[in-house]
C-alpha cells in the first residue's frame, strides 16, 4: 500500500518543490534588487539632507558651500527664466555641440592615424617619438593658446576637446592594430585578401573593442575640453555659466552647472553603451555571465 | 604546360633561418628536399618544435626561404598563390563574422560577386553539416564546429594545394577521428594535394599516402614511407588492421629516435 501511494505521489510532489524553489530564488533576487535600490536612494537622501542641515544650522557657511535647496532653486530659475547669457537650453546645446564636434574630430583622427601607424611600421618608427612628446605635454595648457588662435567662439573649445580626445583614441587604435591575431591576418592573406582588405576587414574589426574602450573615456575628455575652453573665455556655454557664477560668488550656480554636466555626461555614456552592445553582438558574454 | 609534368610541390635544398628577438640566428629548416605529387596526401611527422610548420609557411608563400628553391607546379613561389589553402592549428575564423560570412570571406576577397559567393559558401556548409548554423557566430560553436567552418572556408576557394598545420590537435580524441574521416571525404572529391603536418603518427598513417619523417630541429627529411593501406579508409577501423600496426612499428623506429634526441635537448617548447 505505501509503495503505490509514494509511486503516484512522487512525480506530483517532485515537481512542486522544484518550481517552488526557483520561485523562491526569483523572489529573493527581486528582494535584493529592491534593497539595493532603496539603500542607494537613502544614501543620496542622507548626504543631501546632511548637507542641507549643516548649511541651515550654519555649521558650514551657506554662502560658500550653498545647499541642495538653493541649487534646486537655481536650476529651476535657469530652466524657467533663462540665464544671464540666454536660455539654459542654449547653453547646454552650445557645450554639447562643442564637445560632440571635438569628440567626433578627435576620434576620427585618432582612429585613422592609430590604424595607419599600427599598419605602417615606417610611419610609427619615424613619428613615434614626436607623438610621445606631444602626449607627455599636459594638453589642457593649450586651451589658452587656442583661445588666442581661434577667438571666443566655439572653434577654440572644439580645438581643446580635439587635442584631449585624440591621444587616448590614437594610442588605443594603434595598440589594437598592433595586437591583431597574427593567425587571423595570415589566414585572410591565404584566403586572398589584399593589404587594403586586411586593414579594412581584419585589422579594423579586431581593433574596435580597443577603440571602444577609449571612446568611453574620451567623451569625458571632450566635455572637459569644451568646459575649460568656455571657462577661460566664451560668449555662451555651461563653462561660462560656471565662471560667471563664480564671478558673482554664486556657489549654487557652480553646483547647478555641475549637476547639469553630470546628467549630460551620463546620458552620453548610456548612448555609447547602447551602441556598443549593438556593434558587438558577435562577442561572447563576459566570462561568468554565460555560465 | 609544365604544371602537368612537374610535381605539385617541390622543395630543393631549402633552408629557412629566423632572427630571434635576441639577435641570434635560428635555423628552423635545413637543406630540405621534398616532392609532393598531384592529388597526393602527404603527412609530415616530426618531434615537437622541429620546424614542420615552417615548411608549410614556405610552400604557402607566407615566408620566403633563406636558401634553396620552393616550386609549386614547377614555378618558384613568389608571394601567396591563389591556389593554396591553409588550415591553421589555432582557430583562424573571424569572430565578428557569422558562420556563413566566414565561409564567404575567401571568395569575397577574391572578388567573386556576393550572390555567387553565398551560394558556394552554403554548398560547402552543407557538406560539412553546418547548414543550420549559418547565422551563428564562432563563439557560439563548439571547437569541432569551428574547425568545420575553417575547413569549409578553405575548401570553398577550390585549392589545388591544401596545407594543414596540426589542424585537429586542439580537438578531443573522438571529434578528432570524426574530423579526420570528414577531411578524407572532402578531399576525395577535390583532387587537391595535401601536406598535413602533425606530431601524431597514428593520425598521419591513417590519413596519408606518404609519411615523411623529419629529424629533430633544424628539420630536414629523414625518411619517407609509402602507406599502402587501401582507400577509402575509416580512421577508427584502419588503425586496428595488422598492416597498420606493422607500418606504425616501422615508422616509429625511425621517428622515435628523433623524438628521443629532441627530448634529450630539453626542447619541450611547441
TrEMBL record, chain B:
One function term, GO molecular function aspect: ATP binding
Sorted UniProt keywords: ATP-binding, Nucleotide-binding, Transport
Pfam families tied to this protein: ABC_tran
Lineage: superkingdom: Bacteria
Domain ABC transporter stretches: 9-241
UniProt KW Hydrolase keyword: no
Name the UniProt record assigns to this protein: ABC transporter ATP-binding protein
Provenance organism: Streptomyces javensis
Amino acid at each position: 500500500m505505501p509503495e503505490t501511494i509514494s509511486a503516484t505521489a512522487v512525480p506530483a510532489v517532485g515537481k512542486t518543490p522544484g518550481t517552488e524553489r526557483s520561485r523562491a530564488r526569483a523572489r529573493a533576487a527581486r528582494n535584493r534588487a529592491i534593497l539595493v535600490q532603496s539603500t542607494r536612494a537613502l544614501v543620496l537622501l542622507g548626504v543631501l539632507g546632511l548637507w542641507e542641515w549643516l548649511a541651515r544650522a550654519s555649521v558650514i557657511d551657506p554662502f560658500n558651500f550653498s545647499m541642495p535647496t538653493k541649487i534646486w532653486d537655481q536650476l529651476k530659475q535657469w530652466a524657467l527664466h533663462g540665464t544671464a547669457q540666454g536660455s539654459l537650453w542654449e547653453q547646454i546645446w552650445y557645450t554639447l555641440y562643442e564637445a560632440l564636434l571635438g569628440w567626433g574630430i578627435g576620434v576620427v583622427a585618432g582612429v585613422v592615424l592609430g590604424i595607419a601607424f599600427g599598419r605602417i611600421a615606417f610611419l610609427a618608427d619615424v613619428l613615434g617619438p614626436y607623438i610621445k612628446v606631444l602626449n607627455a605635454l599636459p594638453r589642457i595648457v593649450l586651451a589658452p593658446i587656442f583661445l588666442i588662435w581661434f577667438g571666443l567662439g566655439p572653434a577654440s573649445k572644439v580645438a581643446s576637446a580635439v587635442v584631449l580626445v585624440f591621444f587616448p583614441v590614437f594610442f588605443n587604435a594603434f595598440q589594437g592594430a598592433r595586437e591583431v591575431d597574427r593567425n587571423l591576418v595570415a589566414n585572410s592573406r591565404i584566403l586572398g585578401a589584399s593589404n587594403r582588405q586586411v586593414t579594412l576587414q581584419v585589422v579594423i574589426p579586431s581593433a574596435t573593442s580597443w577603440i571602444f574602450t577609449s571612446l568611453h573615456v574620451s567623451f569625458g575628455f571632450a566635455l572637459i575640453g569644451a568646459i575649460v575652453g568656455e571657462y577661460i573665455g566664451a560668449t555662451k556655454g555651461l563653462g561660462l555659466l560656471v565662471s560667471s557664477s563664480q564671478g558673482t560668488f554664486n556657489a549654487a550656480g557652480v553646483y547647478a552647472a555641475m549637476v547639469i554636466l553630470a546628467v549630460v555626461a551620463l546620458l552620453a555614456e548610456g548612448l555609447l553603451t547602447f551602441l556598443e552592445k549593438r556593434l558587438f553582438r558577435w562577442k561572447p558574454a563576459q566570462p561568468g555571465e554565460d555560465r | 604546360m609544365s604544371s602537368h609534368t612537374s610535381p605539385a610541390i617541390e622543395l630543393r635544398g631549402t633552408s629557412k633561418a629566423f632572427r630571434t628577438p635576441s639577435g641570434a640566428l635560428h635555423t628552423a629548416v635545413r637543406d630540405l628536399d621534398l616532392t609532393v605529387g598531384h592529388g597526393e596526401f602527404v603527412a609530415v611527422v616530426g618531434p615537437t618544435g622541429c620546424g614542420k610548420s615552417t615548411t608549410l609557411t614556405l610552400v604557402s608563400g607566407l615566408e620566403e626561404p633563406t636558401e634553396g628553391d620552393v616550386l609549386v607546379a614547377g614555378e618558384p613561389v613568389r608571394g601567396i598563390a591563389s591556389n593554396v589553402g591553409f588550415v591553421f592549428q589555432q582557430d583562424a575564423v573571424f569572430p565578428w563574422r557569422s558562420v556563413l560570412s566566414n565561409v564567404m570571406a575567401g571568395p569575397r576577397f577574391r572578388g567573386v560577386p556576393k550572390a555567387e559567393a553565398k551560394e558556394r559558401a552554403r554548398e560547402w556548409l552543407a557538406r560539412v553539416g553546418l547548414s543550420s548554423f549559418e547565422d551563428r557566430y564562432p563563439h557560439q560553436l563548439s571547437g569541432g564546429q569551428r574547425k568545420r567552418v575553417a575547413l569549409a572556408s578553405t575548401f570553398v576557394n577550390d585549392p589545388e594545394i591544401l596545407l594543414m598545420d596540426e589542424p585537429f590537435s586542439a580537438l578531443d580524441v573522438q571529434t578528432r577521428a570524426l574530423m579526420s574521416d570528414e577531411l578524407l571525404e572532402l578531399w576525395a572529391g577535390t583532387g587537391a594535394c595535401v601536406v598535413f603536418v602533425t606530431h601524431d603518427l597514428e593520425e598521419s598513417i591513417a590519413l596519408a599516402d606518404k609519411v615523411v619523417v623529419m629529424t629533430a630541429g633544424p628539420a630536414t627529411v629523414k625518411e619517407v614511407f609509402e602507406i599502402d593501406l587501401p582507400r577509402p579508409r575509416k580512421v577508427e577501423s584502419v588503425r586496428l588492421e595488422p598492416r597498420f600496426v606493422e607500418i606504425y612499428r616501422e615508422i616509429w623506429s625511425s621517428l622515435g629516435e628523433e623524438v628521443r634526441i629532441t627530448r634529450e635537448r630539453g626542447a619541450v617548447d611547441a
